Amino acid sequence: MTLLKRPALGRGLTSLMSQMAPEDGGQRELPLGSMVPNRAQPRTHFDEAALVELAESLKQHGMVQPIVVRKVGDQYEIIAGERRWRAARKAGLAMVPVVIKEVPDDRLLEIALVENIQRQELNPIEEATAYWQLGEHLRLTQEQVADRVGKSRPQVANTLRLLRLPAELKAEVAEGRLSTGHAKVLLGVPDPRLQEQLAHEVVQSQLSVRALEARIQQLQKQTKAKGRKKHPQELFIKAAAEELTQSWGTRIEIKAKGKTGTLVMHYGSEGELDRLFEALKHGPAKRR
């Protein structure tokens, strides 16, 4: 197997593929049935309507850009061009143009990833998953992943954060019902159930990202206001302490702890202590 110097994926798919040694030196045609999808394909969703449209174009004009494959046993694994392959099947084509390349297993994910990213064919969740797979598979840092795919490290880091969303929200993002902007705002909400509730509001009411941010601020204010409100038991204890203070003529505190507590009577002199002692023996002092 002959491989030239390994480039960064950021240089582009054409540059990357040119570094792979061709197996037979040029383009040829292969039966469509002899090809199988890329096992490392990061893309899991192919828009059916777009495939039908592409199939109609292939019927009329044929396939201009060849599919890139590699030989695996008696089959050919697609390296780049799975969307065209799927559309060709719909169009009923028997033979399609291909270029056969020698590609090692550890390059499949990289090549499929850069092809889909450059053609903007991955949804945000697929892209995030692909970055994660690339990092795990090749043990790369975020900085190294970013260099390989021609993105900045913050872009890669922000995309990877989408994988922290609950499964239901990831599905909404993948299907396009939630934008990445909405998703990033929802990631700032710590409660997964509240995340899902807010996502439902976004989808049902078609809220913009700014409207979602305003909604979250509103909920935060309501939560703070509730936190400032005293519990009914606290209000009762405070009122009872004030009434006892008036009745006994000295400051009285009630300190509750669960279902128990303490009652504290304050005095400012020995004479006041004597008065309280006598009053406690006979009942509360009369208000003067």
Summarize the SSE layout with pairings.
Elements: H1 13-18, E1 22-31, E2 35-36, H2 48-61, E3 67-72, E4 75-80, H3 82-91, E5 95-101, H4 108-118, H5 124-138, H6 142-149, H7 153-160, H8 167-174, H9 180-186, H10 192-205, H11 209-228, H12 232-248, E6 252-257, E7 260-265, H13 270-282
Parallel strand pairs: 2-4, 3-5
Antiparallel strand pairs: 1-5, 3-4, 6-7
Could you characterize the architecture of this molecule?
Helices cover 52% and strands 15% of the residues. It is of the alpha/beta class and 288 residues long. It folds into three domains: 9-149, Conserved hypothetical protein from pyrococcus furiosus pfu- 392566-001, ParB domain (Alpha-Beta Complex), CATH 3.90.1530; 165-228; 232-282, no CATH class. The strands form two sheets. The protein has a five-stranded mixed sheet.
Quick take:
The chain has 288 residues and is α/β, with parallel strands linked by helices. The protein is built from 13 helices and 7 strands. The chain has 3 domains: 9-149, Conserved hypothetical protein from pyrococcus furiosus pfu- 392566-001, ParB domain (Alpha-Beta Complex); 165-228; 232-282, no CATH class.
CATH architecture annotation of the largest domain? Alpha-Beta Complex
Give me the Rg, rounded.
35 Å
> What is the total number of structural domains?
3
Uncertain parts:
1-13
Helix coverage percent of residues?
40-55%
Q: What's the tally of helices?
A: 13
The assigned structural class equals alpha/beta
Strand content is: 5-15%
Distance between the termini: 107 Å
CATH topology of the largest domain: Conserved hypothetical protein from pyrococcus furiosus pfu- 392566-001, ParB domain
How do the strands of the widest beta sheet line up side by side? 1-5-3-4-2
CATH first level of the largest domain: Alpha Beta
Shape: rod-shaped
Mean pLDDT across all amino acids = 82
DSSP E strands, number: 7
Largest sheet: 5 strands, mixed
Q: What order do the SSEs take from the amino end to the carboxyl end, as H and E?
A: HEEHEEHEHHHHHHHHHEEH
